[in-house]
């Protein structure tokens, strides 16, 4: 099965790249009594659409059918799909692409007394993944040895607590939720885009395009989340 996957990848990867697509992964496995060739494709730029997947069905089908000699030991069904919102990360370039996004990793053995971590992928090297995790409302960086990682995938719905200047700079132009110790303009909770940032205050623009200046000294908690 590994030979089938590598053969298909070698044919599809350059051909799809030339058309503006990234061959994310190829899977060849048995499902019930059927063999399934699952091909996961994304756009090199922007998000892939259903129209893309429809047009790719014929393109990929022709490319796979043209492989000589035929690498498939038996009949199979082909499934062409997007990698999805919680896509698995396998290649070096998958991890490079995921920097700044939230990921989940499973480990083969405990590291710092844990076998899994959820957090923002901050940096990647050949030896380690640097992940920002939140512990008791404080952001901490850990370096997870890559040799321990058995599974890594993107996750949605994660939040990031904003505590440092670097956190606030990162959150600029992103959605944030801020609670304050006292009422400001009659409110103690603000949700919207962090539109401006200074040493003294945040400017948050809500869904009705109303701007609120929130003194940083009044902030009880500030966080970014991608699931507001």
Kindly describe this structure.
With 228 residues, this protein is α+β, with helices and mostly antiparallel strands. Helix content is 21%, strand content 48%. It has helices at residues 2-18, 50-65, 92-98, 165-171, and strands at 21-31, 34-43, 77-81, 102-111, 114-124, 128-135, 138-145, 149-154, 159-161, 175-184, 187-197, 201-205, 211-215, 219-225. It has a six-stranded antiparallel beta sheet with strand order 9-14-10-11-12-13, covered by helices on one side. The chain has a five-stranded antiparallel beta sheet with strand order 7-6-5-4-8, covered by helices on one side. Helix 2 (50-65) links the parallel strand 2 and strand 3. The chain is elongated.
Write the layout of secondary structure elements.
Layout (H helix, E strand, L loop, with lengths): L1 H17 L2 E11 L2 E10 L6 H16 L11 E5 L10 H7 L3 E10 L2 E11 L3 E8 L2 E8 L3 E6 L4 E3 L3 H7 L3 E10 L2 E11 L3 E5 L5 E5 L3 E7 L3
Parallel strand pairs: 2-3
Antiparallel strand pairs: 1-2, 4-5, 4-8, 5-6, 6-7, 9-14, 10-11, 10-14, 11-12, 12-13
